[in-house]
Predict the structure.
Amino acid sequence: MREYQVALIRGDGIGPEIVDSAVTVLEAAAKKYGFSFRFTAYPAGGEAIDKTGEPLPQETVDGCLASDSVLLGAVGGPKWDTLPGHLRPERALLGLRSALGLYTNLRPAKLYPALSGACPLRPDIVAKGFDLLMVRELTGGIYFGDRGRREGKNGPEAWDTECYSVMEVERIARAAFDAARKRRRSVISIDKANVLETSRLWRETVHRVAAEYPDVQVEDMLVDNAAMQLVRNPSRFDVVVTSNMFGDILSDEASQITGSIGLLPSASLGGTKRGLYEPIHGSAPDIAGQNKANPLATILSAAMMLRYAFDEDEAAACIEAAVDRALQDGCRTADIAAPGAANVLSCTAMTEAVLARL
Ligand code: NAD
């Protein structure tokens, strides 16, 4: 029987509740499709600071590297907010990305028809629906370039630099084209090639890689136009590939237009099948320990793990369909329920609702 080793980082706040929900769903899917998991939990973030004095202990890095994949809840909370930068829980995320060599961030943004009332777009746009995948470069570009402060001709100034190598663009482009083959076979590459030299290199390189994928359509779009098209006509996007900073901004825009950020999963991938799968929301300290958290983003992250880390596409689709059906049947946790709605589900009840529809 196929057995997958998964490192679990439950983390802080609602992290433990939502990770435990996803594990229950993964185990049920594994039973149905004839594979199994070995889960091992490792501390990171606030939990690790309390136990070991540092946000990302070596034991956690080693454990993740020895696993086939990593499922993470969320880290952070007010208890650790006043620690110095290098000891903040968020350092664990940056440290893990770098230790696992994760340079691709995949963020689907899908409009669930059952929740379309929460979408902030016009009804005629909502009626067309959308289901896109944002592929963001994660370890290069201006966030990692040289920077500094200096004395300029107008007095003190600061500078940042954007640098992309052909190798970095090639590998993110391949990640996007590969992902498009698991979807509707269309890639829109977003840049600012009318102004930036890095964008011109980006564009040339994406087109060279595109030649290896004749079955996938490719189109370029300037980032300012992309920001408009995402709210005017989001249904035209399938896979979107872009740099670190443009992706940071556009993926938040894409998540907002779904109207239900609590439902959005993500995956961070590198050159191997091993990846880091986590919901895009944080640790929600305001509702931690109350069994109120919405577990769906973490359950959908677990489905992404099945698809991208283990090629268990059928089991992944089965979990996604169960989530769809639970929403269609009116199952709602507090964050997605209509104001004053009766019959709001707890985290465990929503998990049960998904399990019942697998
Ligand atoms: P947040 O996403 O944790 O919470 C924002 C709001 O959304 C809160 O009202 C919260 O209750 C609600 N919410 C979030 N997820 C929910 C869910 N699954 N079910 C129901 N409601 C949900 O963002 P924040 O409040 O800005 O940050 C809280 C902590 O999380 C901070 O310490 C922050 O640094 C950390 N954080 C961690 C990650 C991560 O681990 N990847 C990401 C973002 C924020």
Summary: The longest strand covers residues 2-11. The pocket of nicotinamide-adenine-dinucleotide is lined by residues 14, 74-77, 90, 93, 262, 278, 281-287, 293-294, 297, 335 (CB under 6 Å). The first helix runs from residue 15 to 33.
